[in-house]
Amino acid sequence: MMDLDATPNTIDFEGPNSSVAFRAPMIRYTLNISNAFKMMTSLELPEVSMTYGHGLSSSYQYVPDVILVFRFQAERGHLQAGGVLRTMAYADSITNDQKTVFGGGAAISGLFKLTKKDNLMFQGVFGRGMAKYVQDIYGVGLDAVPDDDKYNRRDMESVRVGGFYFGYQHYWCAKLNSTLVYGFTKVHADQTYPQQDYHLGQYASINLFWNVLPSMTVAIEYLWGQRENYGGKRGNANRFNGMVQFSF
Hints:
The chain is mainly β. It contains no helices and 14 strands. Strands 1, 2, 3, 4, 5, 6, 7, 10, 11, 12, 13 and 14 form a twelve-stranded antiparallel sheet that branches. The protein has a two-stranded antiparallel ribbon with strand order 8-9. The chain starts with 25 loop residues before the first strand and ends with a strand.
């Protein structure tokens, strides 16, 4: 579901906090339905990050992530929509059972050339058990968490996550361009989470890129971020980035 063409140009390597930016070994098939429309499907190596309860632990993942993506390409940009289906395994050491919890979600993204000097790019993502695919919450145990179950069935429940970003790029001249970005990510509270756990995050940046020479680029960037936990505690961060790049 990754859409590099809709990814804003930033010095910050990770980019917007809600971007689908995960690379995995895969087997992929692409079908060109027409000159403008194509379909891609893949089986990807599963990577799961859960927060396990008492007696629950990680297990070998037997089922790959299943991806389906449709892309429409036009002269003034493109539109892409995709979905993922996940079957995530975990172990119950008390009953010696192997259990599974399902996840899935969708993403839509695109880039539109508004004028010869202006581009608009965006992405939105929403689903359950797909934190692996969201930049800000990858690998922090939010694919699934213990189910708040009064019957104590010792199950895991996939976590609802969502987010979006917008980017606007303007070319001041042939050698100078700037990109303004805003991103938002949220973990939805279906259960009672620890107060120190991630609830939502915001991301904003603005930069200036100067193509000094065909083989040399210089850039500066201001980046702002905010994280809010379930307990309401909030923190902000400000950063300036600089870059000098030589291409050979």
